[in-house]
Amino acid sequence: MHAASIELENMSYRILQRREILTLIPVSSVTGQDAWKPEALTADQARLVDQLSEIILPRTDTPGASDAKVYRYIDKMLKDGMTEAERTEFLRGLEWFAGGNSGFTAALTAMSKGERGAEGLRFFRRMKDLTLRGYYTSREGLLQELEYKGNGVYTAFPGCTHPEHK
Amino acid sequence: MTGHWDVIVVGSGAAGGMAAYQLTKAGAKVLLLEAGPDKDPRRENLRHRMVYDLPLRGAMSPQERDRWRINKSANFYNKHVMLEDAEEPYSTPEGKPFTWVRSRVVGGKTLHWGRLSLRFSDLDFQAASRDGHGVDWPIRYRDIEPYYAHVERLIGVCGTREGLPQLPDGVYQPAVPLRCGEQVLRRGCEKLGLRLIPGRMAVVTRKDFNRPPCHYCGYCNRLCCTGAMFSSRVSFIPWAMKTGRLTLRTNAIVRAVLTDREGFARAVAFADRNTKREEEARASAVVLGASALESTRILLNSRLCGSSGELGRNLTEHSMAAKITGFAPQLTGKMPSYAEDGHPGFSYVPQFQNVAAREREFIRGYSFECSSGVSEYPGFAHGLDGFGAAFKKRVKQLYPAMITMETNGEVLTRKENFVEIDPDGLKDPYGIPCLRIHMSFGGNDRKMIEHMNQKAQEIFEAAGIEVLSREPDPKPPGWSIHEVGTARMGNDPKTSVLDRFNRAHDVPNLFVTDGAAFCSATALEPTLTIMALAARASDHLMALSRRRELRKRA
Q1: Predicted pLDDT of residue B442
Q2: 3-state DSSP percent of chain A in helix, strand and coil, to 5
């Protein structure tokens, strides 16, 4: 079980020290069980992106962003899915974040409320959007978390069969 | 091109495809000119591949986004049948954008259309007599009814018979039942005295039809892999081919209709999309079905049909506004046991304004398109505050409970809304002069949009749906892809471009069978009426031809 996700379960805003959170979040997928290498991010940035995405969508009784390798999606989007301006802005935001924040959860919370200025809010939104996009389009997010049943072949469309809705 | 045809049809979508089929079946030798290539949607599609297996998870790259910036309907799944912005430029006046969505491919926009197939009624055809705006159509419901039935039998429309005066019933296959959220919405509508009915979609639900039935994989506008959804490419074009009387020429971009010394159409001049060379093809009659604005562009570039002064005028469409999204509390956390987003369309709240009682604030009306439940991607999550485990749980809870409504409102014809050949000489890569499109919403349109917003809120409240987001303002003009008018029909050659059979007053052997012929937008989706008029015009053309009256002036 992820300690960080327990931390976020009740949206507690306890400020964690960076060292503390680094020990809380497993980063095995980034540190390299396989040969994946980031193409737009540095290894450190990929690790940070992984940690932030996992705070945004943590593992609960279903997989989290880290399980779904959302950082790889974000790296791919940075390389092929964004304009130069979008990429630069995201990377600048990431650097800004890495430089000035000791507690990621608290920082994200403050940023989401606009307490870290426009740049903070913008980076939070961008990071959150990318995390959602990456997670809910992943096999883990779509099938395990959302239990999506679509894009199949069916002989009939039953529609609503609940008398209480009619 | 060498040869001589009975009829040249320009455009292979709803209008041109219908005409090509109707004419060849009746015995005419037809040359069909399509500006784009042929792509069979049953083969060239990405259905049944999961989003996580697609590059960029089904998003377009920035380079692709640039290529289809104006053509906002283009997405990763259908971009290969969408016209790229740069291939066919057009201009708009400063500060008045117009979104012109076009497909240049065999079948045209029917490859990705919305599928709603609704009959107009005399409330529409005689609207001007009731409220004094614009002109009545030169036809009545009884004139077009047999053709509505004819088209419905050919294309396969699923739906229910409801007995509504503003939405005449047709020939239907079994309807696709409403989803849970739509049932909740329907109850809300009924509290306000409104009807919510299953959408009447051109999707086959019967097993014994001329195309395979729907298998409910969803997202028809990403192209239909079985052909259950009607497209001209899957139905009309192969049927016309089968007669042995159709010649299909793809990548033929028509510039003008050429006339003889007596003023009758004798040939069509077109540019080959690959060689960019101009060619000519000759025929005894010409049918334009290239889409409302393209057909009018061809007429303007041909310097034909201008005697009434109405060519290019009376441009109209639907306003899309008041989009509202929310969730039904009783549905949160209740995942259905089947694929809810496999539904091939929408449910529908027919126009209820100015039907029985007159509205004080505005004339004409609008309708709501509704859908509900699971959709592949939980887009609503981007609008929810927060993050973390509680956020994730909320997304999951709301995923099956979402309900959304959007409108199609009749935009009135006004003298300010028209098209002309670009006065600054803008030309496309083939040297063909381009359009300048003038389109904006007027006072009645804006009052109607206010009403839509109020009503959307009332319906959601009555249904007990909690609002998550609203987009009250209208999308830019053109967004509905229901642009019609600019060569309207009418009995008087002084005030109309076409006669009551879509035949040009000025050029008796020239017909325009697409949305250009419309006298008003109505609150209804135009495609079924385009096809019915195209079939009717084709029968009329054949009758004239048999009587040797194609070149006879009225």
Answers
A1: 97
A2: 60, 0, 40
* Structure token pair of residue B403: 């309900």
Q: Is residue A155 part of a domain?
A: no
Instruction: State the alpha helices, DSSP H only, in B423-477.
Output: 443-463
The CATH fold assigned to B1-54+104-158+201-315+413-427+479-554 is FAD/NAD(P)-binding domain (3.50.50)
Where residue B429 falls (left for φ over 0; alpha for ψ -120 to 50; beta otherwise) is alpha
Residues in Cβ contact with B262 at an 8 Å cutoff, skipping those fewer than 6 apart? B551
| pTM > 0.90: yes or no | yes
H/E/C letters for each residue in B216-272? CCCCHHHCCCCCCECCCCCCHHHHHHHCCCEEEECCEEEEEEEECCCCCEEEEEEEE
Whether A22 contacts chain B with CB within 8 A = no
Nearest CA-CA distance, residue A159 and chain B, Å: 5
**β-bridge partners, B421:** B435
Residues in chain A: 166
- Hey, what CATH class is B173-199+318-410+441-476 in? alpha beta
The pair phi, psi for residue B253, each rounded to 5°, is -100, 110
Using the beta-carbon criterion (under 8 Å), do B339 and A154 form an inter-chain contact? yes
pLDDT score at A33: 60
Domain that includes residue A83, residue range:
3-148
Find out whether B364 and B127 touch, Cβ atoms under 8 Å. Answer: yes
> Which chain B residues are closer than 8 Å to A148 by Cβ?
374, 376
Strands B402-410 and B318-319 come out as antiparallel
Buried b (16+ CB within 10 A) or exposed e, B71-96: bbbbbbbbbbbbbbbebbebbbeeee
Name the residue among A57, A129, A150 with its Cβ closest to that of B341.
A150
Q: What is the nearest CA distance from A39 to chain B, expressed in angstroms? A: 14
Confidence of residue A134 (pLDDT cuts 50, 70, 90): very high
* Residue B429 contacts residue B363 (beta carbons within 8 Å): no
Nearest to B183 among A9, A64, A165 (CB): A165
Per-residue pLDDT, A104: 81
Number of domains in chain A: 1
Write out chain A residues lying below 8 Å of B160, CB-based: none
Q: CA-CA distance, B464 to B369, in Å (whole number)?
A: 18
DSSP element (H, E) containing B288:
strand B278-288
Helices and strands (H and E) in chain B: how many: 11, 16
Tell me B447's DSSP state. Answer: H
